[in-house]
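Researcher: Sequence of ATPase BadF/BadG/BcrA/BcrD type domain-containing protein follows. Predict its structure.
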Amino acid sequence: MFSSGLKKVNNAAFPLLAVDGGGTKTLAVITDSKGNVMGIGRSHASNYQVAGIKGANNALFEAINEVLLKVCEKKEMVKFQTGVFALAGIDTSEDRDVVKRMVNDVCHRTGIYFEKLIVENDALSTLIGATSNQPGALVISGTGSIAFAHNGRGEYVRAGGWGHKVGDEGSGYWIGMEAIRAILKMSDGRGPNTLLKDRVLEAINLPTVESLYNWVYGTKSSVDTIGAIAQIVEACTVEGDAVSKNILDSATDELFSLLYTVMDKTLDADEKITIVLQGGILKHNQYIQKQLGDKVKGQFPNSRLILANLEPFEYIVQRGLLNNSNIDI
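Model: Prediction complete. Tokens:
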């Protein structure tokens, strides 16, 4: 997908600007009509719920400005046939209004304009790109969790994605918190013994369960550090720990519930459907990957499961190059 011999070109309309904006980083990519990457700009988080509106705005500006300087002989306005802003944090109508204003401002500041502009949730862009806008579904389990389904005719539904404070069931963070709860219950005598106690304390370099409690409520823990405990839960499951297995079984049930909910609303169970699995948990946790796959095949026998092995921005590029895309803000 990458082109070699980067060379600045004049200001004729470029085929595509694809922006992948998440909670940790932002990528802005200019491609040719075949998806070959002409240049990439990078910046920090552009999820406005994480970075704030000003921080997200600046991240988008920095990433886009960087790639423009790499690729364009920029004089005044730069035209693109298509622009895709695939951004995390577009979850409600209020979010869409905020992000729409932010994108318009960034386009004005960077001097770019589009024949077609698509602004949408990054997970939806991934789904449409991975399925070439054919009927399909996507479930993500990484630090958080979310599911989307679309019928290939511009209609889509979502479930989950409500964040770690109130949702993200089946995610790495959720698994990590379930492990911590199991350790605390074991310490109280309210729950069964589990290998998780010693393994988690050792991994975080903590001496006691009480220090684990302080760690959770202190400044050293985060969504990411708690989410990393999911790896320990899988390892303990392999060793036969019943508590760990129950946690992963519950995570699988939660992810299947997300997926079933969106598919049941938009797709026919007998239809040939592509289901995309994405995120660190679904990519690396072999137990959940297999259990979820078995559940999906049992309910949707004609479905085809694929693991999203490409970089997220590559699916966003694929989405932007589709001629029949009609989902935007």
